[in-house]
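Cross-check.
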Amino acid sequence: MANPIIRDQIKDHLLTPQNCALIIIDYQPISINSVRSMDQHLLVDNIVRLAKTAKAFGLPVVVSTTGVNTIGNKPMIPQLQEVLGDIKQIDRTTLNAWEDPKFLEAVKATGRRKLIMTAIWTEACLTFTALDALYEGYEVYPVVDAVGGTSVEAHKAGLDRIFQAGGHPASWVQVINELQRDTARQETLKPYIEILFSPQVPFMAPV
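Predicted model, tokenized:
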């Protein structure tokens, strides 16, 4: 049984399972292959753990890709597809997902104003989408160790721009702990422990 002093799960200023959504943008082989800001293996492991967190805590998840239907890019990496199952992948032509009507409709349909946001590249697809969401009054939480850019400098510049506009930096470990927050929450305790302490996911290099 959960601790009776737990705060209102919708109005809480911190992240809760009832007040946030996860946004996953462009985790495709061609994009991950170009990441130079962090180890690609670690990047894949971190985004998979974050996706597992969203599933375990019942968060709405919006997934988007670029160029699958238009220029032949491959869809989302299989490691994420395995976790997210049949969640629809909204394919776009725009670098800024916020400018795609179907993506925007899906975000609004979650009913959540706190967006845990991930994307590749940090300096483009994450930055543009985050800035537009902030402009429209959403709270944006970029997960800094689950996103990647074409260089360390590009990654940092993109994050700096988001934070200067009011975004809130987070890590995937911070997110899962913020959602769990109390080990008396038995309904999510087992996946919480498994996600935190399980071995790294097998690495399949993007092609």
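The chain has a mean pLDDT of 94. The CA atoms of residues 123 and 158 lie 4 Å apart. Passed to J.P. for a second look.
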